[in-house]
From TrEMBL:
<dbReference type="GO" id="GO:0030424">
    <property type="term" value="C:axon"/>
</dbReference>
<dbReference type="GO" id="GO:1990834">
    <property type="term" value="P:response to odorant"/>
</dbReference>
<protein>
    <recommendedName>
        <fullName>Protein quiver</fullName>
    </recommendedName>
</protein>
<dbReference type="GO" id="GO:0043025">
    <property type="term" value="C:neuronal cell body"/>
</dbReference>
<dbReference type="GO" id="GO:0042048">
    <property type="term" value="P:olfactory behavior"/>
</dbReference>
<dbReference type="InterPro" id="IPR010558">
    <property type="entry name" value="Ly-6-related"/>
</dbReference>
<dbReference type="Pfam" id="PF06579">
    <property type="entry name" value="Ly-6_related"/>
</dbReference>
Length: 197
C-alpha cells in the first residue's frame, strides 16, 4: 500500500527536466547582464560645441560637450547611453589659421552619432561588423549624404560595454564578459540535454 508520505514525495519529484530552466537562467543573469546591457560613452570635444550651429545637421548632440572626451579620456566626467550595436570613437584633426591645433573627439553609439548614418558598405569593407577595429578614412566615404567632405577622420569601432574608453580598450574586458556568458549558456544547454536523456 502506498502511504500519503510516498505520494507527497513523488509529487515533489521534478518529472520535467525543463523545470530547471528558470533556475539556471536566473543564476546566469548576473554574469550575462553586462554582456546584453551594453552602454557607450557619449561626448564631443568642446570645439564641436562652438561650431554646433554649423554641424548640428550632421551630428546628433552628445550627452557631454567636454575636453574630457579626448585622449586620455576622463571616464568619471562622461555620461553613457544605451546601445544595442557598436560603440564608436571618431577622431579628427583641428586647424586654426591653417595650423594644426590638435585633435577633436566624438564618442558614442554608432546609431546615434551621424544623423544620416554611416556608410554600411564602408563599415563592411573595414571588417568592423565582426571585430573591433580602427581605420583612417575620407569623411565622404564614411558619412552618408556628405560627398563634399574630403578630409580624413579616424574611426574606431568596438563591441562591448563602455568599450569606447581608453581603459576598456586596453583591458579587453568585453572579451572576458562575452566568454563567461557564452560558457554559462553552453553549460546550461549541456545540463538540460543530459537531464532530458
Amino acid at each position: 500500500m502506498t502511504s500519503a508520505a510516498d505520494c507527497r514525495f513523488r509529487s515533489c519529484t521534478p518529472r520535467n527536466p525543463y523545470g530547471l530552466a528558470p533556475l539556471l537562467i536566473f543564476v546566469s543573469l548576473p554574469f550575462c547582464y553586462g554582456f546584453f546591457e551594453q552602454r557607450c560613452y557619449s561626448c564631443m570635444s568642446m570645439d564641436f560645441k562652438q561650431k554646433w550651429k554649423f554641424i548640428s545637421d550632421i551630428y546628433y548632440p552628445p550627452m557631454n560637450f567636454t575636453d574630457a572626451c579626448g585622449e586620455p579620456m576622463r571616464e568619471s566626467s562622461i555620461a553613457t547611453v544605451p546601445c544595442s550595436s557598436a560603440c564608436v570613437i571618431l577622431c579628427e584633426a583641428s586647424y586654426i589659421g591653417g595650423q594644426f591645433a590638435g585633435y577633436n573627439y566624438i564618442r558614442g553609439c554608432i546609431g546615434r552619432i551621424a544623423r544620416n548614418g554611416f556608410n554600411n558598405i564602408t563599415i563592411y569593407k573595414m571588417g568592423a561588423e565582426h571585430r573591433a577595429i580602427c581605420h583612417r578614412i575620407a569623411r565622404s566615404q564614411l558619412f552618408r549624404g556628405h560627398a563634399y567632405m574630403e578630409d580624413q577622420v579616424t574611426i574606431c569601432i568596438c563591441y562591448g560595454d563602455r568599450c569606447n574608453s581608453n581603459r576598456a580598450a586596453r583591458s579587453g574586458s568585453y572579451s572576458h564578459v562575452g566568454i563567461k556568458c557564452q560558457f554559462l549558456i553552453a553549460l546550461y544547454s549541456t545540463v538540460l540535454y543530459g537531464l532530458n536523456q
